Each structure stands twice: as C-alpha cells, then as structure tokens.
C-alpha cells in the first residue's frame, strides 16, 4: 500500500528559482559564519603596513608606560636625595624625628634601660618600706595566723584590752564550767534530814537481805508439847 508513496518520496524535485528556495539561500548566507568572516579572512591573507608613528601605536605605548609600575616610580626614584636639602638622611630633622619616634615605639628599646637597672637596685634592710612589708607579710602569713597570740601589741591596761579579756572569759567554755567542776562532789546533807530518812526507809524496803531473813540467823528452841513430840 505504501510502496508507491515511498518511491515518490525519493523522486521529488523542486525548481531552484522558486521564492522559497531563493529565500532559503539568502537566509543561509546571512547565518553563515564563513560568509560573515570571508572579507576578514581575505584581509588577513594579504600583507598589512602599520607605521611606528601611527596614532593607535602611540596611544598603546603611552597607555603601557602609564600602567607600568616602573615608569610610574621612575621619576620618584630619580628625585630621591635631591629634595630633602641635607647631605644625608640622618641630618634631616624630619627623618631624625621619625627615626626617634620609631625607636620609642620599639618595646625592646623602651624596656632596655629598665631591664638593665633591675639587677642594680639596692635597698637597705632597715628601710621603712621593707619593715612595713615584713610586718604585712607576718600578718598575712598562715603560720603566724594559726599560732596563739602570746605577744601583746598594745598595753595590757587599756580599756579595750580589758573588755576583750572579759568577753573572752565569758565566752570561754573552761571558765564557764569552772564553777561546776568546783562544786562537783562537795554536796552535804545532815543524817537526820527527811530526805536521808526517806532514802534509808526505801532502802530497807527494797533490801533483799531484810526481806528474806536466813533461818540460821534466827535463834529458836523446839516445842516440847507439840503433837508430834507427844505422839512420839
């Protein structure tokens, strides 16, 4: 069924002068990169002449010199040493002041004199500052802090010292219990006092020896007229 159509598809021919074909050729030329660069390729194949004094060449050289760091600093390097007005940089006041400021800012040079003088300091042992430091060290010392105070630093007859001693005596546990220790074991009551008699009676009532009198401690004689003796 499709055999005739398949044969006709390969045998179709269009005339080359139809509007559609002409338009397609023009479009192909417009979008062709090779046709677009044809004139440039032909110009490259020919020799060209550029003069050294041409305006584009001069402009390129000037731009290169301006952009070059060497050319930019060439004038400055040539003028060094000609505008300070001194034979050398050390004699210029501004440069000397800048060097002095830099030396002052240097921490090592700033502390050099101090480090050299640290080992040369001599302080007498009886100086007030040394004595004050020793007393302060004694006060803050943990060893001296834990020792009992046996050296009075003030007069013993001062009012504050006397008051402190009285407060210590009142607060002391040994002093607080000294009266009890003195009274312990010295209590006394008369023998005929009611409390002593009450205690003795209670002791007699609670005594097992009195409550259970042994039979061998009682004196007795046998009865002659008892029924047992009469019967015997």
TrEMBL record:
Pfam family, any one: Nebulin
Which terms under GO biological process does the entry name? cardiac muscle thin filament assembly
Reply yes or no: does the keyword Repeat apply: yes
Q: Name any GO cellular component annotation.
A: Z disc
Is Repeat among the key words of this record? yes
Source organism superkingdom: Eukaryota
> What Gene Ontology terms describe what this protein does at the molecular function level?
actin filament binding
Alphabetical keyword list: Actin-binding, Repeat
Stated name of the protein = NEBU protein
Q: What is the lineage of its organism?
A: Eukaryota, Metazoa, Chordata, Craniata, Vertebrata
Task: Name the encoding gene, please.
Answer: Neb_3
């Amino acid at each position: 069924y499709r055999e005739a159509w398949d044969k006709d598809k390969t045998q179709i021919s269009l005339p080359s002068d139809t509007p559609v074909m002409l338009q397609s050729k023009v479009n192909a030329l417009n979008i062709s990169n090779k046709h677009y660069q044809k004139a440039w390729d032909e110009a490259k194949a020919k020799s060209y002449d550029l003069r050294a004094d041409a305006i584009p060449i001069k402009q390129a050289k000037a731009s290169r010199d301006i952009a070059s760091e060497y050319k930019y600093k060439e004038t400055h390097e040539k003028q060094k040493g000609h505008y300070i007005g001194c034979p050398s940089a050390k004699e210029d006041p501004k440069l000397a002041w800048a060097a002095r400021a830099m030396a002052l800012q240097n921490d090592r040079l700033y502390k050099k004199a101090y480090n050299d003088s640290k080992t040369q300091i001599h302080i007498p042992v009886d100086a007030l500052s040394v004595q004050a430091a020793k007393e302060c060290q004694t006060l803050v010392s943990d060893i001296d802090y834990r020792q009992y105070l046996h050296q009075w630093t003030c007069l013993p007859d001062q009012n504050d010292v006397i008051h402190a001693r009285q407060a210590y005596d009142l607060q002391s546990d040994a002093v607080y219990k000294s009266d009890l220790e003195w009274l312990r074991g010295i209590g006394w009551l008369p023998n005929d006092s009611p409390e002593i008699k009450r205690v003795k009676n209670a002791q007699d009532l609670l005594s097992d020896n009195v409550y259970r009198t042994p039979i061998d401690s009682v004196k007795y004689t046998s009865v002659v007229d008892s029924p047992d003796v009469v019967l015997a």
